[in-house]
Amino acid sequence: MNKQFRVALFDLDGTLINTEDQYTIFWERVGEELNINVPNLSQVIKGRTLTSIFNNFIPSVELQQEISRRLDLYESQMQFPFYPGVLEFIQDIRKNGVRCAVVTSSNQAKMSVVKRNIPGFDKFFDKVLTAEDFSASKPDPACYLLGAQVFSAHKSECVVFEDVITLRVIFFIFPFLTLKDYLLIIGRRRFSGTVSVLPDIQIRIVLSNL
After folding, report:
1. Which residues fall within 8 angstroms of residue 53, CB to CB, at 6 or more apart?
2. Where are the domains of the chain?
3. Beta strands 99-103 and 158-161: pairing type?
4. Which of 55, 78, 111, 144 is 20 to 30 Å from 134 at the Cα level?
5. Could you give the CA distance from residue 142 to residue 66 in angstroms, rounded to a whole number?
């Protein structure tokens, strides 16, 4: 367990970029305006692909089409700011040999919008995996298992960064950490320019969060 991790797998919304409040507003509004009878809709769908949301909570094809139309328009007008410190963190661990991938439930169309809003997005990551790349939606761990496979890494060599702690099935398989909490804990020391954050994020430390 003392082996240093070599792959970092990042969720996107709410972990790398600050969009969760915007999506909460969207799904609350959609639920109310379209009379979708799912308690706490904006919360129960977190982390899922749109296909999974439709299959599990909104079977009406007519509603699915209307929501898709509204979501495409909404996302085209969204802001996609990185959380403070995230890019520095990623640059630091990549400099130290850690491979980094985005593993998101968003589809390629959404990622195209993100990349238009964040020029050079791809240069920060070795791989970006979207909903089209895996067959099962979170909380199934298939997406993160694929992330490990992309880098020919054992799951014990990977760390998952997520914001949805309810996705426990993933965390029983992978070491995990909430990126925002981690950045808060190490504070100013994280990017001092002389001390790398890497020694602070050994698997043995990550596992203590399980």
Report:
1. 45
2. 7-18+82-207, 20-76
3. unpaired
4. 78
5. 29
Which pLDDT score, from 0 to 100, does residue 1 have? 36
Find residue 99's DSSP bridge partners.
Answer: 7
Biggest alpha carbon–alpha carbon distance for the chain: 57
| pTM of the complete model | 0.78
Q: Evaluate the CA torsion angle 201, 121, 107, 145 in order and state its sign.
A: negative
pLDDT digits over 62-101, tens only? 999 999 999 999 999 999 999 888 888 888 889 888 999 9
Q: What is the DSSP string of the chain?
A: --SPP-EEEE--BTTTB--HHHHHHHHHHHHHHTT---TTHHHHTTT--HHHHHHHH---HHHHHHHHHHHHHHHHT---PBPTTHHHHHHHHHHTT-EEEEE-SS-HHHHHHHHHHSTTGGGG-SEEE-GGG-SS-TTSTHHHHHHHHHTT--GGGEEEE-S-TT-HHHHTTS-EE-HHHHHHHHGGGGG-SSS-SGGGG-HHHHHTT-
Q: Write down the residue that tokens 């082996």 correspond to.
A: 3
Class of domain 7-18+82-207 as given by CATH: alpha beta
Q: Which pair of structure tokens corresponds to residue 208?
A: 């203590």
Residue carrying structure tokens 């995990």: 176
For 24-68, write each residue's pLDDT tens digit.
999 999 999 999 999 999 988 987 889 989 999 999 999 999 999
